[in-house]
Amino acid sequence: MDKLIRVENVTKQFAGHTALDDVSLEIPRGSVYGLLGPNGAGKTTLIRIINRITAPDKGRVWFDGHLLAPEDVPHIGYLPEERGLYKSMKVGEQALYFAQLKGLSKQEATRRLKEWFVKFGIESWWNKKVSELSKGMAQKVQFIVTVLHKPQLLIFDEPFSGFDPINANLLKQEILALRDQGATVIFSTHNMSSVEEVCDHITLINKSHNILSGSLRDIRRSHGGNIFEVDFRGEREPLVAALGKAPCTILDTSASDDEALENISAAHSLKIHIPKDEDIRDVVGIINATTSLRSFSEVIPSMNDIFIRAVAGEL
Amino acid sequence: MGKIAIIAGREFNERVRKKSFIITTILMPIAFVAIMFIPALMMNISSDEKKEVVVVDQSGLVGNRLQDSSSLHYTLSDKTAEEVAAENNDIFGILIVGKDVATNPTNVQLLTYESSTINIENEIAGQISSIIESEKLKAYNIEDIDAILEAIETPVSLRVKQLGESGETKESSSVLNIALAYIFGFLIYMFVFLYGNMVMQGVIEEKSNKVMEVMVSSVKPFQLMMGKILGIASVAVTQFVIWVVFILVVGSAAMSIFGLNELVASAGSAAAMDPAAAAMMSSSMPAIDEEMVAIIKTVTDPAYLFRILGGFLVYFIGGYLLYAAMFAAVGSAVDNEKDTNNLQLPITLPLMVALFVMLSAMQDPNGPLAFWCSIIPFTSPIVMMVRLPYGVPGWELGLSIGLLVVTFVAIVYLAGKIYRVGVFMYGKKPTLAELIKWARYKY
Q1: CA nearest to B9 within chain A
Q2: Are residues B217 and A78, on separate chains, in Cβ contact within 8 Å?
Q3: Are residues B214 and B311 in the same domain?
Q4: Entry pTM
Q5: What range defines the domain where residue B245 resides?
Q6: Interface with chain B: mutation pick from A14, A53, A85, A158, highest number of B CBs within 10 Å
Q7: What is the pLDDT of residues A67-108, one digit of tens each?
Q8: Do B140 and B184 share a structural domain?
């Protein structure tokens, strides 16, 4: 897959601290790329460098095969974390203004805006002042303004903050739709569940370093703890006894406690750890011989777990 | 250029539609008239109250001949100064005229209870010296001295005409020149300050509500700055044009009401007539004095009006662009308005200097101070406006405008650089030295 953005060894220092230290990453074209990291890690600085708001002290940024130049900036749509709208202007007028600045003609801008306003069900806001809108409402307007000129690269900084679940979902669908139409999306967030739902690739930045980069699937796989979940029919005790002889350890022995037994599904499932160098087939063979196996699957860690462990330095 | 026009269009529409714009456009001419006339009015009011001066006349020459003026009331007293002082304390002061005042004119004292003014002192000294002078004249024993004095009294009224470069003469009125110099000089000062500040506030607003961040992917910061400056400039020009139209309408309405049109016509014909006839006319119509004729002829002269109004537009736009760019740079550097104070110093200082030079240039429009300050770009918009009504040589005007243009291009360029760095810099309050450093950043 070819890369739309390549960040090479970028370092950026501000008076007194280093915001980015030798960060490199590659953003595949047509993907949703998650830029993760705790507050103050340097995500926004990296976004600002890609946006050409600030220049890196060291390192280079490539855009679509050439060094990032001022001419590339119009192909970027940026939704900053702190929303920027003129408070005393009317919604429609303002959206039209920004659209015209992005090079759309007035008619074209109006047509596209009407489309989006209908899609988001906000036609009645056209003549409202921005100061009358709630935070989430203003954000919808801002989202429309960001994507209206169909840029190649979209950068969303915390797009879901301030949204209720219904609107967050709506936005998620739209982001995925934009990707399917060919846009590349950079997506900066701390909200890990949204990362799992929309991101194809991620980079985790912590303390100005890139500590983890790659496709979401590979990362979650490779950071699994070789833990497997076994669902079965029949008695629990014989299986536990049989597995005692197998090359694995049972993790949730506490499930045999009376309390846990009340939960039927827990009674019919077990979590086991199989060391990397053991053959999984042996274990499955033993289970099969003892009871009837309903399912056997690897437990893939959530991005949340990976994030917390990575930031704590446990990976 | 297209984007700058879009931005300027927004600035213009947003501001012209505001209530505050409509209100200031209506109220400003009223306020301006009030500022000019209220002090004069106040002076008249305060002078209604006459100050008491008790005269202790040791010479017997002056005391009974002092006449009350509009502000002073004299009471002759035969007591000594000490006695008067002991019994009176609600008077303005005691005038002690020495016994030998005729031969020793310095032997006059004014003791006052409150601070005295130049006007009062001139008034008293003037009266005393004319009393003594006429007393001395009497000593020559000329017959009918009073009749002779009355017959020789000749108040001269100057008709000033300025020699043009091609030798023609034109009427000029110093009263009108001073009035126009003051009004237009002050108007430029006010416009540059008000609208420059508007630019600064607009920049701070855009920075603090993060509109800048949204705009950056579609507009260059320089375009944003220029769009804002030009948009607000067009608001100012609109306001000025409204005022000019307003004045013309009100002025011509007033003229037709008070029959001043005839006056203009007669003034025109009076000038064409021979001096004797003109003198007769002006004696038959005492309301029109020479000054009035000159004023009316001047303000109805298209070339003169063009010079003043055209000069105003050129210097307003030049001066405004120069200062607005600096205001924009300062606005970009701070997070809120409170932090602008010390950064504004390099802007307000030359403006203040220009204002002070303007006041002195009204006295001496062709002196070296006025000349240099009307050439130097930071003060020229205001100072040159003061000199314009008096007439300025073409080369000086050209040099001044040329320098103004070169400087504003340079300042706009530098301000654009500072702005570029400033609008994305949050949190800390920069110093002037840092601003200058920003101007050298490379992007």
Answers
A1: A97
A2: yes
A3: yes
A4: 0.72
A5: 173-439
A6: A53
A7: 888 888 888 888 887 778 888 889 999 999 999 988 889 999
A8: no
